[in-house]
């Protein structure tokens, strides 16, 4: 499908931007260069700073969840693309019982190939005493599962999670980084509702656009359209309220959201000052506009009062 | 006073070649006692006594790294950095894992201005102690300084450097028979040439480098003769237009000429800096502007903006664009030309126009500006820097620049400056505004910004202002962006997109393709074996590649041709 290709390209794009930022030392990630090719272009500093905020914030929430549940949990990364969190968590010794990554077949197939090519990636997945199952587009290890599924087809999602041995009784964190916005609203609603219904203790972290009802948003939509990227789910990106409400409407206990601009100010400032000195940014306007059009939203179901409700990104 | 034994160099023999084993326990004990005494003096701030006693301890037992380490520290305190260095090195000779000694040596080197050397030692400490915040802080501090030094060096004017303009051999460049682009008439730029050129560029075709170089060499020679502050006289009844930042948005520049007429002797213009960077058609913009300057030297003016500088051009795309459309040598030539751009213009002795804004100091006069020695990269402070970087603020007084360079200045500052220099108002650019302009400081500070929908994302209008010789009240025209070929100058996050371009057939055929430039085209995934060495057939296109700052040859564009 033409529109899927456009969406798939967004992964390559984001991954290359992240790799670029890593090479400029915005944050460290020894695995990203193994999963993503280098782009020869220079990226403007506001791009790298934006990615820095995005990666740092998502990681923060992810780590908090893992620590709160004492790793006795699962993580499902929807639309994971070239994400490297699994390996980074292993390095930190902060990995969940199971880490499941889900994306389009062409994306997972490429990731499988890259993992096979790099010993260091494969080794982490394949522990000594257990076999891992590798197919062209999937990997099933003891604590890592890479599966292909179309996220807009709930039955596929269900099936693949089941095949990955997901335990609905474990606290589960679902992550989506610029994913839901590309999926039809009704399908996303279905997915979010299903998760809320099936997982008694869960958290969902969603990074994507917000405040899209203004001129900047209009232009972004146009620009992306011209690249065959349709923001099918942009209706929920109108405001922080709509981002929260979409979860509350389908049975999540609570939800919260913050604009990236605010998050940027709440990140550990010593490191923020460090990264701001990496590259001189000629003006702040562009970064501020970008950061005010992206947000992190998170929702929870915490009937046993584990403390998930209290987790936030500050 | 230091003991004479401390004139040892770092590489000198420690002790008499024996090891600590050869010493009796008693001697070692004595040395320790001396060291303790020295430490006491040190704690009390009596460094010279401390040095004396450390030296005595060393005389007893020259094999203890800590004695040298401590003495080194005492030397630092008394600013005898040479001795501090030598002692630290000796300590490390005895014990290469003595972390403090690395610190001492690095501190001494820093004090001696040897930052690069110091950085190595800080790096060693950080490697061994990755969680030590203090170590990292010192490392970063030192690194910052090293980088700053490198930057200073890069922007300093080199004395005996042969300029590109002087070394170009135009005669040896020949124009191919099949060149279809515009040609000079009567050996130079004419109105016909410029109008043909604009059409050529609009169609994304190229100007032959021989003509480009000729234009550049001529324009450089012209600007060299200009003062840093150029005076403009607009006669009564005559119109004058001021435009702000263009930032490589060529199609929007053409639109300005549609709306307001082509430059001419009766339709003079001033472009107030930032012609290049960020937008993907910076070369086209700046070359056309230079042509108008050559055509109408007394009716067309260009001021330097903060983006007419090397660091900006490296980061924000112009250098990459020039290298890809022409050559690296031409990028250097642009740098030479930008160094000579005037910094400000004064219209009818009443309106001062500069790209950034006003100054950190009071009492700056127009003469001060005239005297600026501008043939250089913009410095990090001072009048030249402030002219290109400052921003107005609504509250009175001054403040630290939000950009980190230049200053913020309030309405009282503007007022005082105008009064001092007998002016009516200032016009500046440098900041994007929703309607393309903003009137601040009670009409005394006007911002005009002419790049609409800046970076294809901001959704702002651009604007220009006109005055007449007898009525200096500005009249503003705001305008929207116009479509342009499909080269997106900015990234979005995923949508922080990378930069995309669609290759121009002509630019592309028979060129070697770099693997990095091939990104799956829509609907087709290419893997390595599909990548052609040379593109023979246009059906091997389209190829999306990363642009704007792309250092390689990928900037021809053909908007509608998507396969």
Automatic annotation (TrEMBL), chain A:
Span of the signal peptide: none
InterPro entries (alphabetical): LCMT1, Ppm1/Ppm2/Tcmp, SAM-dependent_MTases_sf
Entries under Gene3D superfamilies matching the protein: Vaccinia Virus protein VP39
A single GO molecular function term of this UniProt record: protein C-terminal leucine carboxyl O-methyltransferase activity
Organism whose genome encodes this protein: Magallana gigas
Xref: Pfam families: LCM
GO cellular component, one term: cytosol
Highest taxon of source: Eukaryota
Family statement: Belongs to the methyltransferase superfamily. LCMT family.
Listed SUPFAM superfamilies: S-adenosyl-L-methionine-dependent methyltransferases (SSF53335)
The reaction(s) this protein catalyses: [phosphatase 2A protein]-C-terminal L-leucine + S-adenosyl-L-methionine = [phosphatase 2A protein]-C-terminal L-leucine methyl ester + S-adenosyl-L-homocysteine
Presence of the UniProt keyword Methyltransferase in the record: yes
Name of the protein in its database record: Leucine carboxyl methyltransferase 1
Keyword Transferase: yes
EC number: 2.1.1.233
TrEMBL record, chain B:
Renumbered residue ranges of the record's region Disordered: 1-28
Biased composition (Polar residues): 1-22
Top-level division of the source organism's lineage: Eukaryota
SUPFAM superfamilies: Metallo-dependent phosphatases (SSF56300), TPR-like (SSF48452)
Annotated ranges, domain Serine/threonine specific protein phosphatases: 207-483
A single cellular component GO annotation: cytoplasm
Localization, UniProt: Cell membrane; Cytoplasm; Nucleus
One MF annotation (Gene Ontology) recorded for this entry: protein serine/threonine phosphatase activity
TPR repeats: 31-64, 99-132
Keyword terms, alphabetized: Acetylation, Cell membrane, Cytoplasm, Hydrolase, Magnesium, Manganese, Membrane, Metal-binding, Nucleus, Protein phosphatase, Repeat, TPR repeat
Cofactor(s) annotated in UniProt: Mg(2+); Mn(2+)
EC number: 3.1.3.16
Similarity comment: Belongs to the PPP phosphatase family. PP-5 (PP-T) subfamily.
Annotated protein name in UniProt: Serine/threonine-protein phosphatase 5
């Amino acid at each position: 499908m033409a529109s899927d290709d456009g969406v798939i390209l967004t992964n390559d794009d984001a991954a290359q931007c992240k790799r670029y930022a890593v090479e400029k030392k915005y944050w460290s990630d020894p695995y990203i260069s193994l999963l993503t090719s280098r782009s020869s272009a220079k990226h403007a500093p506001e791009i790298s700073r934006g990615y820095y905020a995005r990666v740092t914030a998502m990681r923060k929430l992810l780590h908090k969840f893992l620590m709160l549940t004492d790793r006795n949990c699962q993580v499902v990364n929807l639309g994971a693309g070239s994400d490297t969190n699994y390996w980074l968590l292993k390095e930190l010794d902060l990995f969940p019982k199971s880490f499941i990554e889900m994306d389009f077949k062409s994306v997972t197939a490429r990731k499988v190939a890259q993992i096979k090519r790099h010993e260091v990636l494969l080794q982490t997945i394949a522990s000594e005493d257990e076999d891992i199952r590798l197919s062209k587009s999937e990997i099933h290890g003891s604590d890592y599962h890479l599966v292909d599924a179309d996220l807009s087809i709930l039955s596929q999602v269900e099936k693949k999670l089941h095949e990955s041995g997901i335990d609905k009784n474990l606290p589960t964190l679902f992550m989506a980084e610029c994913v839901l916005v590309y999926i039809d609203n009704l399908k996303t609603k279905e997915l979010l509702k299903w998760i809320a219904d099936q997982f008694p203790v869960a958290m969902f972290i969603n990074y994507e656009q917000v405040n899209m009802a203004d001129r900047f948003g209009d232009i972004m939509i146009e620009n992306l359209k011209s690249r065959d990227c349709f923001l099918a789910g942009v209706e929920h990106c109108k405001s922080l309220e709509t981002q929260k409400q979409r979860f509350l409407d389908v049975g999540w206990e609570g939800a919260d959201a913050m604009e990236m601009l605010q998050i940027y100010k709440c990140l550990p400032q010593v490191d923020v000052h460090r990264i701001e000195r990496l590259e001189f940014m000629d003006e702040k306007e562009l970064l501020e506009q970008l950061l005010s059009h992206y947000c992190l939203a998170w929702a929870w179901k915490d009937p046993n009062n584990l403390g998930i409700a209290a987790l936030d990104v500050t | 006073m230091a003991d004479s034994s401390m004139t040892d160099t770092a590489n000198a023999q420690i002790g008499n070649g024996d090891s600590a084993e050869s010493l009796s326990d008693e001697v070692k004990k004595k040395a320790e006692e001396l060291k303790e005494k020295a430490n006491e003096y040190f704690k009390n701030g009596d460094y010279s006594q401390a040095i004396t006693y450390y030296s005595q301890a060393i005389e007893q037992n020259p094999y203890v790294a800590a004695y040298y380490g401590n003495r080194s520290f005492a030397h630092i305190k008394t600013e005898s950095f040479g001795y501090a260095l030598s002692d630290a090195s000796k300590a490390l000779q005895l014990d290469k894992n003595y972390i403090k000694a690395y610190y001492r040596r690095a501190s001494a080197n820093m004090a001696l201005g040897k930052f690069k050397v110091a950085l190595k030692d800080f790096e060693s400490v950080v490697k061994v102690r990755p969680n030590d915040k203090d170590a990292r802080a010192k490392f970063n501090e030192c690194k910052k300084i090293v980088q700053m030094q490198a930057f200073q060096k890069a922007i300093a004017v080199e004395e005996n450097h042969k300029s590109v303009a002087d070394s170009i051999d135009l005669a040896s460049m020949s124009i191919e028979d099949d060149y279809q682009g515009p040609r000079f008439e009567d050996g130079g730029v004419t109105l016909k040439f410029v109008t043909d050129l604009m059409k050529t560029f609009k169609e994304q075709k190229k100007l032959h480098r021989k003509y480009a170089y000729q234009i550049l060499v001529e324009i450089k020679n012209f600007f060299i003769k200009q003062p840093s502050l150029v005076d403009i006289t607009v006669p009564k009844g005559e119109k004058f237009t001021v435009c702000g930042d263009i930032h490589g948005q060529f199609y929007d520049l053409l639109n300005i000429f549609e709306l307001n007429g082509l430059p001419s002797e009766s339709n003079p213009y001033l472009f107030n800096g930032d012609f290049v960077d960020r937008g993907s058609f910076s070369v086209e913009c700046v070359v056309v502007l230079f042509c108008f300057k050559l055509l109408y030297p007394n009716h067309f003016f260009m001021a330097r903006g903060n983006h007419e500088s090397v660091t900006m051009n490296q980061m924000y795309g112009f250098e990459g664009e020039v290298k890809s459309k022409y050559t690296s040598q031409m990028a250097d030539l642009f740098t030479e030309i930008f160094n000579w751009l005037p910094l400000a213009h004064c219209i009818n002795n009443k309106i001062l126009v500069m790209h950034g804004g006003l100054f950190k100091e009071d009492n700056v006069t127009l003469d001060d500006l005239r005297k600026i020695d501008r043939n250089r990269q913009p410095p990090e402070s001072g009048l030249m820097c402030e002219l290109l970087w400052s921003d107005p603020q609504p509250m009175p007084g001054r403040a630290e620049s939000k950009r980190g360079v230049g200053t913020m200045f309030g309405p009282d500052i503007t007022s005082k400056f105008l009064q001092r220099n007998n002016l009516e108002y200032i016009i500046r650019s440098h900041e994007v505004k929703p309607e393309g302009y903003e009137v601040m400081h009670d009409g005394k500070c006007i911002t005009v910004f002419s790049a609409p929908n800046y970076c294809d994302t901001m959704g702002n209008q651009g604007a220009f202002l006109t005055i007449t010789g007898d009525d200096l009240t500005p009249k503003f025209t705001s305008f929207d962006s116009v479509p342009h070929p499909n080269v997106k100058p900015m990234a979005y996050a995923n949508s922080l997109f990378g930069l995309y371009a669609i290759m121009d057939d002509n630019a592309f055929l028979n060129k070697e393709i770099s693997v990095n430039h091939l990104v799956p085209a829509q609907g087709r995934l290419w893997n390595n074996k599909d990548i052609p060495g040379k593109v023979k057939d246009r059906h091997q296109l389209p190829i999306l590649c990363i642009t704007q700052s792309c250092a390689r040859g990928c900037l021809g564009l053909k908007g509608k041709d998507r396969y």
